[in-house]
Amino acid sequence: MNLRLVCTDFDGTLLPAGEEDDRSICPEFFSRLQQLKKRSGVVWVINTGRPWESLRSELERQRLPYWPDWVVLGEREVYRIEGRLPAPHRAWNQRCSELHRELFAATTSFWEGMRRFLQHETRAVYGQAEWSPLEILAADAGEADRIHKKILDWIAPFPDLSVQRNFAGFRFSHREIHKGSALQAVQEEIGLDAAVTLAAGDHHNDLPMLDRRYAAFLTCPVNAIPEVKDRVRGQGGFLASRPASAGIAEALSRFEACEA
């Protein structure tokens, strides 16, 4: 089997977490990926929670040797990159929009209750956003854990509603729309499948795509949270010994060695 698709999260998986100006994606990642592109035409997908302008700005700041072939934005919308501009996967993005419009309209009581809780019992910053009636940023990791537990308790009566967490941030979506199903939409569009796919992530919102339904080869950097490491380890994936993009370069190198 030849690897044909590499799907990576962005923040924490490629780009080191933190606010330092000198954060960068290591050159080794690109050299490993380039070898795979030359050998088998590997397609690269960045699967992120960022909106386009935020991702574009960071890609430009990084001065990457090349950009991804596809991006998933907001953990749901799918775009092909053409001339460094995003061209939408219209059928998939329209389905996402319709599912979320119907779901969010049918769960009014949940949003009202969550806003009261956030206002009176937390120090979190929250409000309506592009992809979710409520996006939340907890004040610290401990508060994020407490908010996460409350969300999981209150979300139970709404089986189609799910929460995506990344560090101290939370966003809501339809249970059928997540990084894994968005990756599958890319696969179907370009005629590939899980058997030739690698998926790499580091945090809660990456868990849906770190599944053998979507990728035969799973990996995470050493800075991944315990839940991600457990998911990858439990499915026979590779836990890198280095952080962020250096760890993903390590995983690509291991894959190449297995294929040799």
List keywords for this structure.
260 residues; alpha/beta; Rossmann fold; 2 domains; eight-stranded mixed beta sheet; four-stranded antiparallel beta sheet
Structure overview:
The protein is an alpha/beta fold. The chain folds into 2 domains: 5-75 and 178-259, HAD superfamily/HAD-like (Rossmann fold); 104-174. It is 41% helix and 20% strand. The chain has 8 helices and 12 strands. The chain has an 8-stranded mixed beta sheet, sandwiched between helices. A 4-stranded antiparallel beta sheet has the order 6-7-9-8. Helix 1 (27-40) runs parallel beside helix 8. The longest helix is centred in the middle third of the chain and has 16 residues, at 90-105. The mean pLDDT is 95.
**In the CATH classification, which architecture of the largest domain applies?**
3-Layer(aba) Sandwich
Average pLDDT taken over every residue: 95
CATH topology of the largest domain: Rossmann fold
CATH homologous superfamily label of the largest domain: HAD superfamily/HAD-like
Cα separation of the termini:
11 Å
Question: At the first level of CATH, what is the class of the largest domain?
Answer: Alpha Beta
Low-confidence stretches: none
- Number of E strands: 12
Helix content: 40-55%
